[in-house]
Design brief:
460 residues; alpha/beta; nine-stranded mixed beta sheet; 13 strands
């Protein structure tokens, strides 16, 4: 399979090279000024990243201007067959609202709120799991990770990634090859949720709430299956979109202007820990801000949603969520990878949090920071992601906590908890690091069972 994939990448690359405009584009790129080698390592790395991004984007822009790639146009058109992610399994349909409060990333929030909707709710216009812009952002993140692999993250699952790095040689070539390859082999997925759907009536003090933190290279909807499956069982799930540079790309509003926040490439050098530690503390503050925001929404306070000002779709009526959440007795945190370590850090900083679920927590950003894990905690690791360094940090932080449980997900890989495997054919998933010994659909089903069992026991 790896040999076959390698040939696909070579063919895509060669097809680019045979186009007449390619030679002019290469000439244009050759005239670019290279960075001064005497600059510091950090500045060199940043310039290298910026140059590669600009080169790749310029090549793609010029190719799209000079030639037509039918598969990319078809992939993004309404004519293409769209396949939904697996349907919600609980008794409820799932509604959602996107919320962004005004302000800079360090003092505002961007959230997706998944909530139980009546079973009769129709899913007529489900959102795309990843549009063209999202795919471009994810590919830029993958390209950066291939050249600066994060410390304490196992890379043995990602066979194709490093094979492609050798075949395509440069970051620009890597990005261009994958950008043209994804539409050829990928699947257009939609998320089976309904925007601004009615809220199902709750029983008692309100729906239980889970605040979810995504991992590196993701955003508020890249792990939607975990979120909407819980919501379909009667849980309010609030997915935080982190905006400190660890995601594949995000944004905020500065007045009426959209300000983009690209993925921050972090070189593996003496400054790696300092940058990652700064990021995780920013992420932690975002989780705590989300909780504070939910308290206000639950109390019926008016919240300004700047997404509504720039979206012609159905407006988000946050008043339907008034008095719908049990934030006193049933507030929980969950996260994956960078998000796993984020919620472990945040859990002891808000007394309302009752328990924590961490999937494959990446603990390197907290390796030198003193913190405490004091709440009931379930840590689930995929087989290959079990890392003694990660476990050591957790054990040190929870040495006074007898209610910390560890489990290993047999047959799963690090990306099993994300929606990403569903975007690619089964044949390619193992080479892309998205499939272990068990099919991605089966593994995702097992993860959902583990999460629901954990939460149901706490709610009961």
């Amino acid at each position: 399979a790896e040999t076959y994939i390698g040939w696909i990448l070579i063919i895509v690359q060669e097809r680019i090279k045979t186009h007449p405009s390619y030679f002019q584009i290469l000439h244009n790129q050759a005239m670019m000024v290279t960075p001064n080698k005497k600059q510091t390592t950090e500045k060199n790395s940043n310039l290298f990243t910026e140059e590669c991004d600009e080169t790749a984007e310029s090549i793609q822009e010029q190719l799209s201007r000079h030639c037509t790639w039918p598969w990319t146009d078809f992939f993004d058109s309404k004519m293409v067959f769209q396949t939904s992610l697996p349907a919600p399994l609980g008794p409820f349909q799932v509604g959602y609202l996107d919320l962004m409060t005004p302000g800079l990333p360090q003092d505002s929030s961007l959230l997706r709120i998944y909530y139980p909707a009546p079973s009769s709710t129709s899913i007529t216009s489900p959102p795309l799991w990843a549009d063209k812009e999202c795919r471009a952002g994810m590919l830029r993140f993958i390209q950066m990770a291939a050249w600066d692999w994060p410390t304490w993250v196992n890379n043995s699952e990602f066979n194709l990634l490093f094979a492609a790095k050798k075949i395509l040689l440069s970051p620009a070539g890597f990005l261009t090859g994958f950008s043209l390859g994804w539409p050829l082999i990928g699947t257009v997925r939609t998320i089976p949720i309904a925007r601004a759907a009615p809220l199902a009536p709750h029983v008692g003090s309100g729906w239980p709430v889970v605040v979810f933190s995504h991992g590196m290279g993701c955003n508020r909807f890249n792990m939607s299956q975990l979120c909407y499956q819980l919501a379909s069982r009667g849980v309010m799930v609030v997915a935080v979109e982190h905006r400190e540079g660890s995601g594949f790309g995000t944004f905020y509003m500065k007045g009426d202007t959209v300000e983009n926040i690209p993925h921050l490439q972090v070189p593996v050098d003496e400054d790696e820990y300092r940058v990652r530690n700064k990021q995780i503390n920013h992420r932690c503050e975002e989780v705590l801000r989300a909780i504070d925001l939910l308290v206000k929404i639950n109390a019926g306070e008016a919240i300004t949603n700047v997404i509504d000002k720039n979206d012609n779709a159905i407006k988000s009526d946050l008043t339907i969520l008034k008095s719908s959440m049990d934030l006193t007795n049933h507030l929980y945190l969950a996260g994956h990878s960078f998000g796993g370590s984020t919620v472990l850090l945040a859990s002891s900083l808000d007394t309302k949090v009752k328990a924590v679920f961490a999937m494959d927590p990446w603990m390197y950003p907290l390796a030198e920071q003193k913190f405490e894990i004091a709440k009931p905690t379930l840590v689930v690791n995929s087989e290959i992601f079990v890392n003694p360094n990660n476990l050591h940090v957790i054990n040190e932080a929870s040495k006074n906590n007898s209610d910390v449980t560890f489990e290993v997900l047999k047959g799963g890989v690090h990306l099993s908890a994300t929606d990403l495997p569903m975007a690619f054919p089964t044949l390619l998933r193992r080479a892309l690091g998205m499939k272990g010994k068990v099919d991605a659909e089966v593994t995702m089903g097992e993860i959902n069972k583990i999460v629901w069992k954990w939460l149901k026991n706490l709610i009961s």
